[in-house]
Amino acid sequence: MVEYGGRRGEIRWTDQTLLPLRPIKQFSGTVSCWYCDFKFSALNEPLFRFGRRHSRCLRVWFSIGVVFSLAALLGVTLIILCELVRTTLVCAGNTWTGNSLFGLASVIEGLHISLPNMVYLCLSSVICVFVHELGHALAAASEGVHIEYVAIFLAVLFPGALVAFNHSSLQALPVVSSLRIYCAGIWHNAAFCVGCALALVLLPFIFSPFYIHGESLMVLDVPSMSPLYGYLSRHDVIFSLDGIRIHTIEEWKQTITMLTEQTYSISSDQPSVNLNVENGYCIPQSLTKEIAQVQFKGNQTYCPKELIAFASMTCLDVEKYTNDANRNNIHCMDAKDVIKLKKCAYPNFKEQALTNGSSCLCSEVESCLTPMQLPGLGWVEITYSSLECHNRRRSLFSPEKHSSGEKISCLQTFVYVGDLITMANSIHLTSYLPRWSIYFMAYLPNLLEKLFTYAFHVSMVLTLLNSLPVFFLDGEYILEATLHCFGLLSSRMRQSVRRCCLLVGTSYSACFILQTIFVSVS
Q1: Cβ–Cβ contacts within 10 Å for residue 160, how many?
Q2: Which residue in the list 3, 83, 133, 366 is annotated as catalytic?
Q3: Cα 308 from chain centroid?
Q4: pLDDT band of 109, cuts 50, 70, 90
Q5: Residue 342 and residue 20: Cα distance in Å, rounded?
Q6: Is 45 an active-site residue?
Q7: pLDDT of 23-82, one tens digit each?
Q8: What's the maximum distance between 2 C-alpha atoms anywhere in the chain?
Q9: Distances from the Cα of 179 to the Cαs of 63, 185, 368, in angstroms?
Q10: Confidence (pTM)
């Protein structure tokens, strides 16, 4: 944001100014019921000297910013108009066919405000505002405009910052030079977005001497409210889900989504019980005779303590165990013991059955038992190890050695039964593994990755908002300076067009934001 003398948002080519023409105190402030600020001028001279010394390069840099900002002003305005028309027509039919502009509805809907996230958001906002105002200050210095002061303010509950310039020097500039100053903030935020994205891409290479990226996931924290609390601990390394190797957080999310879809597809085919032969295990028949059968309460199975109901089935015949005839084939067993046994079928058991006529791996003295799950509840085997063991025996973690049947003693497995999406979102993970078991190093890549991600999104929001023709934002000053390029318009007509555009832009932008929030929460 920039500020200069005369009425706000209106360039008046006179010598009148509301800003002091003499240097203010190095530090000063203002406090009122709804507004407070902190002004300082310590950076005035260093920024001005730097801008004058590199004025030629800076003018070229900010001239590119003028082209970008004008294109953004026009493009974002047209997109918002199209979005408003589209959502109005769609909402009139009481249907919704997609996300709004830039996916804002999905972002707001999935936004989880927690204390750590608030810290990242505040810190990234401070950095992005600094980058924005630095652009205005350097552009002004390259044009020979002195900085009066830099202010950080809090208006009601909204923080912000501004750079105040010498009014006389600013009014003496050509229109193109003024545009370079007004567009500098938007241009710097856009360039900062590119820098953050580049940093996120290069982060694995920068940290490669100290961290391994994309080998396995490491647990950073397991909150006490997580369903995995007591099963996983900090710095545990997750190796696989249901035998599917997991390397990155994206693969973790994709695998959880796939397993959830499989759970619901099986539940829809078998509404009374969820039986999946891929989760079946070969249980010796002698062992099943010694295990107590399941108890029933009405049509519901009941197993004591932490035991799980398993139903006997053939590999190619998935039946519903809801009638009295099949109740004798249901047993309560401890999942920790069952998962140590071999599986009933290959993962591609359907193709195996079609080609070989059979997909069962159980012998004649074994029975295939599969867990009975309530509809919508998933069953997933999570294989993990400690970080120390992982670093000691990293060579054994290769897919070739693991699939060859070699025993890896440091790998442990447990079963989670429940909502898989809730489980996946309840723990904090990172794709970076320290090469040495130094625990305080485990958090640095995740901190920087989150900071760059938040800074990217905040900077993008500042770019888009300041590109809009809205009162009190950079778009207001860019619009007014642009209208001065049209010499055929009289001064009064230019002001009328400016006010009309700002009123329409502010109204439409407010409607769009409110509509986006309404759609995301409805």
Answers
A1: 16
A2: 133
A3: 36
A4: very low
A5: 82
A6: no
A7: 455 667 677 777 788 888 888 889 999 999 999 999 999 999 999 999 998 988 888 778
A8: 101
A9: 8, 11, 75
A10: 0.75
